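hey
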């Protein structure tokens, strides 16, 4: 009996893991369309809107920077109801952001949670400036910059300022992802294998999303990817 009782949760974990991989592949296909100027804008018609009137089940959650150049639904070419999106400058976590992420997991059974940073991030630039000068901006902006500064101060100096900025962007996305993995209310899903948390970086020039855990494991930083060619209008 013990074997039978343990088999169902194991099968559920495997199924959820496969679903997370499948969802990430869908995001990859959407980003490929976006960067080749071939966005399909799927699941946005009248039928989809009627379908979502009473019910939604976005199995993917995205925490992204609030930067106007990085709208997740466009970057991944997804439709209505596909992603549960939360945005804050520098992907900074506070109680309301964490509460939103936990709500997505509890309410919609999130299988994939993406932390999406991007190059040239203004919040990271401000944290680097505070790191150099020792001065935080006043008020609420100072709170936000201080959260990113904690990460910036752990990043080794690089050969150029541009390289240092990019290293900080990557470190910040990975740090936020790790905080999410350890957060009560989310850690249980991660440890059970029912949800994956994936840090990523969006390249503004190439319009490309790079999965940072993949780059870390393979030793690649994602450089050398050609910029998309604009199609004739």
């Amino acid at each position: 009996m013990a074997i039978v009782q343990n088999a169902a949760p194991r099968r559920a974990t495997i199924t959820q893991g496969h679903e997370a991989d499948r969802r990430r592949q869908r995001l990859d296909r959407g980003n490929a369309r976006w960067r080749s100027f071939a966005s399909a804008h799927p699941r946005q018609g009248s039928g989809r809107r009627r379908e979502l009137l009473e019910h939604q089940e976005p199995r993917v959650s995205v925490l992204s920077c609030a930067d106007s150049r990085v709208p997740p639904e466009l970057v991944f070419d997804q439709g209505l109801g596909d992603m549960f999106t939360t945005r804050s400058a520098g992907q900074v976590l506070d109680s309301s952001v964490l509460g939103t992420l936990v709500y997505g997991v509890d309410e919609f059974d999130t299988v994939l949670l993406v932390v999406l940073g991007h190059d040239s991030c203004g919040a990271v630039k401000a944290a680097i400036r505070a790191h150099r000068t020792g001065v935080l901006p006043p008020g609420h902006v100072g709170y936000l910059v201080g959260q990113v500064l904690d990460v910036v101060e752990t990043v080794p100096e690089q050969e150029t300022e541009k390289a240092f900025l990019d290293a900080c962007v990557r470190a910040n996305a990975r740090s936020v992802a790790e905080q999410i993995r350890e957060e009560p209310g989310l850690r249980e899903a991660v440890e059970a294998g029912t949800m994956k948390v994936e840090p990523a970086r969006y390249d503004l020039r190439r319009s490309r999303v790079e999965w940072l855990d993949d780059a870390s494991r393979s030793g690649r930083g994602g450089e050398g990817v050609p910029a998309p060619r604009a199609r004739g209008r």
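The first helix runs from residue 2 to 35. The mean pLDDT is 88.
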